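batch job 7 of whatever, protein = Cryptochrome DASH
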Amino acid sequence: MPTSIVWFKTDLRLHDNEALVKAIQQSNNIVPVYCIDDAQFGETEFGFKKTGSFRAQFLLESLADLDAQLRALKSGLVVVRGIPEEELPRIARLYNAKKVYAKKEVTTDEKKQEERVAAALWKQGCVVETFSTSTLYHAEDLPFPLRGIPDVFTTFRKKIEKEAGIRPVFDKPETIASPIISETKLPTLPDLGLTPLTPDSRGVMPFKGGETEGLQRLNHYIFGTEAIATYKETRNGLVGSDYSSKFSAWLAMGCLSARQVYHEVKKYEAENGANKSTYWMIFELLWRDYFRFMMKKHRNRLFLPSGIKNTTVKWDTPNPKVLQSWIDGKTGQDFIDANMLELKLTGFMSNRGRQNVASYFCHDLKLDWRYGAAYFEEMLIDYDASSNWGNWAYIAGVGNDPRDARRFNPQKQASDYDAKKTYRNLWLQK
């Protein structure tokens, strides 16, 4: 059996990683590789960076953790910087690799890159095999074909909960046979053209990248504090670390597996009993799956102004001053402003906050929703393309919401979820 490459992308973990497990089973030697693609640190058509400092820092921490875990198994992570369709073939030639194992992509740009890499490797006799490693339900286990996936979430949920099962996780490898891999040197934020971070003590919690931290957070939330027992009641909170799981950053970078979260929840239920909160955690994971499957079904339509509905809504290109006032938390709507300041200063915002600021952007300011989604892409530490663009299209009324538009009243929302102004006072203090 030949030497093979495992191309890590947003699956930066050893547990429940089918690409890694299959590579070990079918190869003599494994070369784990991560390519830092400069295109991911460039600017989008909307004038924002694709990756800002918060997510870049989380990525670098995740890579350092992955490398440390691999070295504990007598392997290591080869980190290269450049264009993947050039760097992966170069690494394959260097190690005489005949196969590359990788995560399967669904979004337009990533799928095109995957195809370019496969074509370049094929020219030198190296093939690519991809695996679905990101979702709770495996695409092959869905009770309908890809084109037949319902465009209404409730219809999807009811059928999938009744007719589909969730696979067990793949165990973390006990050993990995690799050639000698030199010490890994990671770039700094300035190396990537980004500004170093200054932590803000008001943030909900310090987010540190890596599988080690992700698994610790999983254990803390489910078994340490048992906060999961009241998740449904507290999930719309705004201040503090445990009003919600905060798993999203580790899920987005692939430091945590959605199936691992599911099976830990089931373990908790077996020991303590199930309730509406434990179900709601799985329900939210299912939403995450749904947006990914919608991206597979509709492809680049979720990036168009009309979304998947082909509406005739005319979105206004943002006036730069109006856009900047939204970004800087200077709209004059205190609930909107507090949330936007939290995002700007920490890279995180609650789910309640995201729905409100997106609704305000689309329905009060009446601006092209894609600019808001693109700003979130730059800023969010837990950015996931399918969930981000799917949620923004949903709020804008051009996505999967069966209603025409989902508009929130920020004054009422502030009264309902921040009645004592604890959150607004925290972020709007002079």
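notes: The beta strands are 3-8, 29-36, 78-81, 97-103, 127-131.
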